[in-house]
């Protein structure tokens, strides 16, 4: 009979393997996700009075779907990518019958209440039978057109069953995450029984993204890198392991001044394969170089961005030749320290001092006074403080993650377009 290993959302199995044959789902998890998780004994003699399998606990990984969803996006499993691959599978299998539309599949999966799914599965299916006999009825995908799935006989367009079974666990999880009721359920990977039975070594189950799935974030200075790393640690710890940072003040690998624009030219020239986001400040100098970088011919795995324009930065106290007045510092003086909470007790009043005129951006360049104090106060936080206003730095993380997801989505679609094997 052998030993099963399953990736599941609640009681709904979305991928399974047996003995030596299983898929690696380590990228969905982090070391902190290691814990005792439920597994199900399918021995009929061990069922509870309601016919459900006996729940056992064993070692595995478990993480809430809302956090797994964010990791899936950074792996390229966006809704657009999922739809693209679903349609490609139809073309790849040369199906003559009209398939279930992706919108139907998406809506059906988004309506599934996983808490009501039984954990009692049958065994030993032929190709395609698992989806038809177990998954379709659980996901309420049957319609008038497909009513004969209920008969248990092989339908004329059995290929659709096989296609859905090859759809892939990550795609199914991404669609199941469209139902808010599912987001707090754990996605679990129960490798413990496989290790206990001697079919695999514990070292084979390592959490975290592969080097190819990580992102290199290149910033103008060390303060940017330190603040972003801290922000991820405090606000997005469930995806922090996807990011590595390089700043232009330390360890600059090319001769010159450490300028981010020149660094980008060098990276593009050597054809760097890493997923790379080039992050400029939202000040006069940063905006000018960001615009210059956009004119370069960059590969799809490299994307330039600047810190986002925010409404909160439109009325900041400034000082210059014309005296003190509130002004819009977007694209003029918004370095990353301006995205921190500048109103905490004990900190100086936030003031931007205007400096030289930047010809490239045709505006004056400004700089936040006492910015080191604001940075130190943020870096000294030991945990997320409800009294600390994180809205601006959250907006920075949102923008940075969006650029990374765009890279991952392109890589995913492009790689599948040149391959013919089923999606895993």
Main attributes of the structure:
disordered C terminus; 2 domains; HEPN/Toprim-associated domain-containing protein; HEPN/Toprim-NTD1; single chain; 12 helices; 424 residues; four-stranded parallel sheet; 20% strand; 33% helix; elongated; alpha/beta
The helix-and-strand class reads alpha/beta
Fraction of residues in β-strands: 15-25%
Number of domains: 2
* Succession of helices and strands: EEEEHHHHHHEHEHEHEEHEEEEEEHH
In order across it, which strands form the biggest sheet? Answer: 2-1-5-4-3
Helix % is: 25-40%
Q: What is the overall silhouette?
A: elongated
Distance between the termini: 24 Å
Radius of gyration, Cα only, in angstroms? 26 Å
**Total count of strands:** 15
Overall pLDDT score = 83
Uncertain stretches: 142-159, 254-258, 420-424
Detailed description of the structure:
The chain is α/β, with parallel strands linked by helices. The chain has two domains: 4-208, no CATH class; 211-409, no CATH class. The chain is 33% helix and 20% strand. It is built from twelve helices and 15 strands. The chain has helices at 65-74, 79-93, 102-111, 129-139, 159-165, 169-176, 192-196, 222-235, 260-270, 284-294, 371-379, 391-417, and strands at 4-9, 12-18, 34-41, 54-64, 186-189, 215-219, 243-247, 275-280, 282-283, 302-306, 316-320, 323-327, 333-334, 352-358, 363-368. The strands form four sheets. Strands 2-1-5-4-3 form a five-stranded antiparallel beta sheet. A four-stranded parallel beta sheet has the order 7-6-8-10, with helices on both faces. The chain has a four-stranded mixed beta sheet with strand order 12-11-14-15. A hairpin with a 2-residue loop joins strand 1 and strand 2 (12-18). Helix 2 runs parallel beside helix 12 (391-417) and helix 9 packs parallel to helix 10. It is elongated. It starts with a strand and ends in a 7-residue tail after the last helix. It comes from Lysobacter auxotrophicus. This is HEPN/Toprim-associated domain-containing protein. It holds the Pfam family HEPN_Toprim_N.
